[in-house]
Design brief:
Layout lengths: L5 E2 L8 H7 L4 E4 L5 E4 L1 H11 L29 H21 L5 H21 L10 H8 L2 H13 L2 H17 L7 H7 L5 H8 L28 H36 L4 E3 L9 E4 L18 E4 L4 E4 L11 E4 L12 E3 H4 L12 H18 L1 H4 L14 H4 E4 L3 E4 L9 E7 L7 H4 L18 E8 L2 E8 L8 E2 L1 H10 L2 E2 L5 E4 L10 E2 L7 H13 L3 E2 L3 E2 L3 H12 L7 H10 L1 E2 L17 E2 L2 H7 L2 H5 L4 H6 L20 H13 L1
Parallel strand pairs: 1-2, 4-9
Antiparallel strand pairs: 2-3, 5-8, 6-7, 6-8, 10-11, 11-18, 12-13, 12-17, 13-14, 15-18, 16-17, 19-20, 21-22
Helix pairs in contact: 1-2, 3-4, 6-7, 10-12, 10-17, 12-17, 12-19, 17-18, 18-19
């Protein structure tokens, strides 16, 4: 019958190429979960290509989750569509075949099959049917640019020349491209809605260019109000935009060299974490993690925790974090972490500690190298694309104004400390009053014995403080603004320890009252984040974080793996989207058993893990890794290079002792 839905299995009788060449019918399709979906012939053909993955697994039901249209972005097929569909299929086969049989031997074949199908789709559809491709021309841009709403918003930028008017023009442009039905067939609007173009590039092309920075990051005084489509009509605009081009040239040379050298260093360190085992080590030592909510400045933590296991303390069972687990936002969870993996081989990580991303790691991959290269390639690519990824620049600085100057001073570059003459006055009391929303982690740290293991910026997010002074003469109260632009303050480790020791009270409005009358330290009580304005600064910050990690009194690292993980996660995800599983492996590679005894083996099976930087790890681990690092001649001629210490085998040891390494590999294969 004409309107009868066709079972999805009917299409399996034909090869994908046969459907591509002859099938031109839109119809209803019934899937094996009894859901009926109306599909165009193009959707049927794409779905059939992907269904080839199920040929080796006839027991798997072809549910409606296999319909390609489920993975559109705003109703449009995009470059991410097939990958999203693959994600569903991979999880479906893992859950219903591999886990049921407890056999993951075919995982690598499935991964190869996915890769092959993508190539076939590209060759069959992309190359042979080029006449179906969509292109753009200047008229598509002119149609949007001529919209009176956008032109009016740009005129306001010319008049006011401030950040608010620029952001308003971007909002107007976004609304036009996203919501106006008059432009639903415009190629630029379709690409924008479908996520096929970078939104900041479109902002440059059709909206105000905005503020531009010099090579050194300094901000030019006035923004460019015009767009690239309208053209740069005066000498000032053309001159400062040319500096943007100079910055791009600089970044594509020296900056990329620095970024790639950092990538090489990190890869040499992390290659020691060699393999992912598809097993469960039984680890019950969790990492405490506060799942931050989304803000105007960040997307929050949840989407970068997806696939990780956490302990549901209500049922005392481990669960996998999904993108819809919004009930975790704003709570502290016990996270299963690769840092704490208990496998006997310290150079291996189990799939349970790594998380669901395990099913996307090829069996032959060096896990540490894979995780690091995935992260560093994003940094380098972002540096290359800085000119296109940044629409309007911003600057950041720490300032104290008004009443804040009476009580505080700037210390240690980004810290806020009490002035020396403020505290300790006789016959007076001073209190800090802060809302529970801003000091959200205070309750969680009261029973924590080792405060330095908590990243301080994850305990509080301070917009303002209420300073209250009580004397015989009466009570004075001051509101001290802390938030500076997009930056929020956080209590320091030292001050958190003070709170734990001295306690706090709650007032009638359920705000924390902290008595600071006994605070006698010159150290800052609040730290402000040093937000980078560019991907070049991001790369520099990552290098500064991991190159040299402080050692206290020459015997122990100041940082802990937990705090370093939190810092690296926050730093990278201020600009990028990096799943925490990758960062855990990287941080684990930096752990050692004991700096005092020069035991630089990976810190597994010890009571307390220590962590050191690149400059300590490279000379004290593998000679193969050391020779591939830097100062080769110095290393070879230094007798200490040949002292045994507690050296860790490294994949590059084959350069130093090829016969021994090859013999060991042959022995392993024979076992």
């Amino acid at each position: 019958m004409k309107n009868q839905a066709i079972p999805i299995r009917e299409y399996m009788r034909f090869t994908p190429k046969e459907l591509l060449d002859v099938y031109r019918t839109d119809t209803k399709v019934v899937f094996e979960d009894n859901e009926i979906i109306f599909m165009t012939h193009k959707e049927i053909i794409h779905t059939r290509y992907i269904l080839d993955l199920l040929v080796p697994y006839p027991e798997v039901k072809i549910t409606s989750g296999y319909a390609i249209s489920r993975y559109y972005t705003n109703g449009i097929f995009t470059s991410k569509t097939i990958n999203k569909c693959y994600e569903f299929i991979l999880q479906d086969i893992v859950e219903n075949v591999f886990k049921v049989k407890n056999d993951f031997s075919q995982l690598s074949n499935l991964q190869k099959h996915m890769f092959d199908i993508l190539n076939v789709i590209y060759n069959d559809i992309g190359c042979e049917h080029i006449n179906y491709s969509t292109s753009t021309n200047i008229l598509d841009y002119v149609e949007i640019q001529s919209d009176e709403r956008l032109l009016s918003a740009i005129d306001v930028v010319r008049e006011k020349r401030d950040v608010d008017s620029i952001n308003n023009a971007y909002d107007v442009l976004d609304n036009i491209l996203t919501n106006d039905p008059n432009y639903k067939h415009n190629a630029i609007a379709k690409a924008y809605v479908g996520g096929m173009v970078n939104p900041n590039q479109i902002k440059q092309l059709l909206g105000p260019r905005g503020y531009v920075t010099e090579i050194d990051g300094s901000l030019f005084k006035y923004p460019i109000a015009s767009s690239f489509t309208l053209g740069l009509s005066n000498m000032y605009d053309m001159a400062i935009e040319s500096r943007s081009g100079a910055k791009a040239l600089f970044l594509s040379n020296k900056a990329v060299q620095d970024s790639e050298y950092l990538a090489r260093e990190l890869q040499l360190v992390t290659m020691v974490v060699q393999h992912l085992e598809m097993t469960d080590c039984g680890n019950k030592e969790y990492v405490s993690w506060y799942v931050r909510p989304a803000t105007d400045e960040s997307k929050g933590d949840l989407h970068n925790l997806v696939g990780k296991r956490y302990l549901d303390e209500n049922t005392n069972t481990e669960k996998i974090i999904g993108s819809n687990d919004t009930h975790l936002i704003g709570t502290s969870i016990k996270l299963r972490s690769a840092i704490k993996c208990k496998l006997k081989n310290s150079k291996h990580i189990c799939s349970a500690c790594f998380g669901e991303l395990s099913y996307g790691i090829h069996d032959h991959s060096n896990l540490g190298h894979y995780c690091t290269s995935t992260v560093t390639q994003k940094i380098t690519q972002s540096i290359l694309s800085t000119k296109h990824l940044t629409s309007s620049a911003t600057t950041n600085s720490i300032k104290l104004e008004g009443d804040a100057v009476k009580f505080f001073t700037i210390k240690e570059k980004n810290g806020i400390a009490f002035r020396a003459n403020v505290l300790g006055k006789k016959q007076s009391k001073m209190y800090i009053i802060i809302t529970q929303q801003e000091a959200f982690g205070i309750k969680d740290i009261v029973n924590v014995k080792d405060i330095p293991k908590i990243e301080a910026t994850r305990v509080s997010r301070i917009e303002s403080l209420n300073i209250v002074i009580e004397t015989r003469a009466g009570r004075e109260s001051y509101i001290i603004p802390i938030k500076d632009g997009g930056k929020y303050g956080s209590f320091t480790h030292k001050f958190l320890e003070y709170i734990v020791t001295n306690g706090y009270k709650l007032d009638d409005n359920d705000r924390y009252i902290i008595d600071v009358s006994n605070w006698t330290y010159a150290a800052p009580i609040i730290v402000m984040p040093e937000l980078e304005f560019s991907f070049l600064e991001l790369a520099k910050n990552v290098k500064a974080l991991l190159k040299r990690i402080k050692i206290s009194k020459g015997t122990k690292s100041v940082e802990t793996p937990e705090t370093m993980l939190q810092k690296l996660f926050d730093m990278l995800n201020s600009k990028l989207d990096i799943n925490i599983a990758l960062l855990e492996v990287m941080i684990y590679a930096f752990t050692i058993k004991s700096y005092e005894t020069k035991n630089f083996e990976l810190a597994r099976g010890v009571r307390e893990q220590e962590i050191v930087g690149i400059t300590d790890i490279m000379p004290n681990r593998s000679l193969g890794g050391l020779y591939a690092w830097e100062y080769v001649v110095k290393s070879i001629t230094n007798s200490s290079s040949f002292r045994k210490f507690h050296r860790v085998n490294h994949p590059l040891d084959v350069m130093v002792k090829p016969n021994e390494v090859l013999a060991e590999e042959v022995y392993k294969k024979g076992q």
